[in-house]
Amino acid sequence: MGNHPTDNDRVGGIGSISVVIRSRNSEATLDAVISGLGLGDGDQLMVVDHGSVDGTRAIAGRHGAEWVEYVGPFNFSRALNLGFGAARCGHVLAISSHCVPVRPGLLGRYREALKEMEGEFGVACGSASDSLRVAQSLEGRATVVSRERLLTDGGSLPGNQNSLYRRADWERHPFDERIVSSEDLEWRVWAAREGVRVVSCPGCAIHYRNRGPLRHLFRKGWNDSMVARHLLEMRPMTPRRLAGIWWGALRRWVSGEYDAGGAVRNVAQSAGFFLGSRRREPQVYRAWER
Questions:
Q1: Of the candidates 179, 201, 203, the residue with the CA atom closest to the CA atom of residue 282
Q2: What DSSP string describes 144-209?
Q3: CA distance linking residue 237 with residue 131, whole number of Å
Q4: 51 burial class (0-12, 13-18, 19+ CB within 10 angstroms)?
Q5: Which domains does the chain have, with CATH numbers?
Q6: Beta carbons within 10 angstroms of residue 225's beta carbon
Q7: What is the pLDDT of residues 96-139, one digit of tens each?
Q8: In whole numbers, what is the pLDDT of the chain averaged over residues?
C-alpha cells in the first residue's frame, strides 16, 4: 500500500487524522458533516465521490477537501480503499456524507475518548441513530468489544457510517472489494479472528440522515442481511422481529422522532433485510450498482 507516516499509532497518542467521506449528490448534508468534524492543523479531508451532479463538489471545495473521483459500478469497499490509500495520517475516519455529528468537534471527541486506553486498536466505532433525539442522548466511555460479540453479531456497531481506523491495520487487511456491502462487518470479523482490538465509542455520535431512494435502502438491507448470514451464520429474521421494527418506526413517527419519510425509509430497509435474510443462497460476492 506504500509508505506513509504513522503519526502516533498508539491509542494514547492519536495525532492527525485523515477523514474519508463517501458521497453522491450530498449537497443537503455535506456542509453540516464537514463543519461538525472539528478539523485541525495536520488533519486531512477527502471526499470520494461517485457521480454527483449537484453542488457536492462546490461544498467540498469550500472546505478545502481533496476530491477523489470514483468511476465505475459502485462498491462500498472500493470507495473506502481509494480514500484510505491516499491517506497521509496514521488514523483514518470513515464517515458517510449523510451522517452529521450531533456535537461539535467529532475528531476531538474520538481523541478524548481513546486517550486513556492502553495499547493499540484496529478500529474505534462511534455511535449512530436516525433519530436526532436519540443521537443527542448517546454517551459513554470507550470500551473494548469482546471477540465473542464480534463473532456473534458483529458487535452491533454502526460501522463505516462513523468509524476511526488505525491505518496500519487497514494495510494488513483492506476492505474486501468482492463483497456486496457490510465491508465494516467483514473487517471486524477479521479483526476478531486476528486478535486486533475493536473499540466502541458511544459518545462519538452522529445523526444518520440518509434520504436515499426507497429502492436503494431496500437493496442495502437485502445485501447487508446476506453478508451477515455469510459471515456470522446468522439465522433469518423472524416476522415477529420485523413487525417489532415496523411498530417502532410507527411510534417514532407519532412521537415526532421521525418524519413520515424517515419512517417509510426505515420500513424499506428492514423489509430488504428481512427478505434477504430468508434467501436460501446468499449472493455475497458481486459488484452492486446503485
A1: 179
A2: EPPHHHHHHHTTS--GGGEEEEEHHHHHHS---TTSSS-HHHHHHHHHHHHT--EEEEEEEEEEE-
A3: 23
A4: middle
A5: 11-208 (3.90.550.10), 214-277 (no CATH)
A6: 25
A7: 999 999 999 999 999 999 987 777 899 999 999 888 888 899 99
A8: 87
Give the mean pLDDT of 90-94.
97
Contact 79, 160 (CB under 8 A): no
Distance of CA 231 to the CA centre of its chain: 18
Higher pLDDT, 200 or 237: 200
If 0-12 CB within 10 Å is exposed, 13-18 middle and 19+ buried, where does residue 177 land? middle
CB under 8 Å to 15, separation ≥6 — which residues? 7, 8, 42, 89, 90, 91
> Quick one: pLDDT band at residue 160, thresholds 50, 70, 90?
very high
Q: How confident is the model at residue 153, as a pLDDT?
A: 80
- pTM for the whole structure: 0.87
Look up residue 37 and give its three cell numbers: 468534524
- In order of 73, 169, 173, 218, 264, the CA distances from 192 in angstroms are 30, 12, 12, 29, 35
Q: How confident is the model at residue 32 (pLDDT cuts 50, 70, 90)?
A: very high
Residues 227, 282 contacting (CB under 8 angstroms): yes
